[in-house]
Amino acid sequence: MLGIAASPYVYGLGGYYLSCLVIIAFNVAAIFHLVFFVKDVETPGQEEEETGGHEPERHSFLVRYLWEPLKETWLTLTKKRTGHFRTYVFVLLVAYGVYYGTETYGEQIYLYMTLVFEGFDGTQFSTYNVYTESIAAAASFLLVPLLKDRLGLHETTMTIVILAAIVAGQLSSTAANVLWPEFYLARLLPSLNICIYACLRSLFVKLVAADEKGKIFSAVAILVALVPAGFKPFYRKLYNATIAVDFPSAFLLVSAALYAVVAGLCAFLWFNRERINEGGEGKGGGEESSANEKKIELDELH
What is the pLDDT, as a whole number, of residue 301? Predict the structure, then answer.
């Protein structure tokens, strides 16, 4: 939030070059801190449990840090699960991928605003970013807890409701001809998109076992890295093509349609929310979890 608030002043001092240098400097500082100051926390006996009390097997750098994590992630995704939970995991992955890809139209929203609103520039865009990110931060801290804890809504219900609001905001943005207050008010609802991120990640936790959370989020991270490679060129080509026919807001309509696709996928999960709740919370509907539960029940009977 501090970086967003300072962005108009940084841009005013040095333009895009200074802004990029500041971003790079903070990223390098973060990596430096992680490498040299953050230590892994090991529980007593963890190393012996992982190695079985034997000398750990030596692997090459690529095998240890690339092949093994990818293999474990793939095995987690394709693992056979009871109660259609494997299908739920893949549906949620597709929903997250489409959601994240739809969010990559930031470059087009800037070009659109400079085209439609006379005199709009990078400094004003920084102010706009402060506005939208402030709403997003407030929504993540206030709206999600309100819907979840106070109203008791399921993650799928929250996602569908918020996506409906975002679609309405995208559609109304195409009709705004004045920057303030019309366009700013129209962009209020799409600024709730951060809530979708929280709801979908919460669903992932419910769909997999407790010891699979890291692996499933590794799959999500891989998806996040790959999806923009397809969506960003798509948005760029779409925007360039629609400018020629004097329809620059087409990307907003397309993004609204993509958000509707995500809502449809979440609606499928909503219809199965009771199964997710029954098998969720760290159980993940997996065969191993079910077997362990049956074993505990038998032990209790004896």
Answer: 47
The model's pLDDT over 81-100, given as tens digits with 9 standing for 90+, comes to 887 888 999 999 999 999 99
Distance between CA atoms of residues 190 and 299, nearest Å: 52
Dump pLDDT digits (tens) for 39-63.
755 545 544 445 555 555 566 666 6
Q: Which of 250, 228, 230, 221 is nearest to 111 (CA)?
A: 250
| Long-range contacts (CB closer than 8 Å, 24 or more residues apart) made by 4-11 | 4/129, 4/130, 4/133, 4/134, 5/130, 7/126, 7/129, 7/130, 8/123, 8/126, 8/127, 8/130, 11/122, 11/123, 11/126
Contact residues for 112 (Cβ-Cβ < 8 A; gap 6+): 239, 248, 249, 251, 252
CB 130 within 8 Å of CB 184: no
Instruction: Give the residue, 119 or 15, on which the prediction is more confident.
Output: 119
In angstroms, the CA 187 to CA 125 distance is 13
Whole-angstrom distance, CA of residue 56 vs CA of residue 301: 40
At CB < 8 A and 24+ separation, what contacts does 92-95 make?
92/200, 92/203, 92/204, 92/207, 92/265, 92/269, 93/219, 93/220, 93/223, 94/265, 95/200, 95/262, 95/265, 95/266, 95/269
> Given a cut of 60, is residue 277 above it in pLDDT?
yes
The residue whose two tokens read 């939208």 is: 132
For residue 44, the model assigns a pLDDT of 53
Q: CB–CB of 107/232 below 8 Å? A: yes
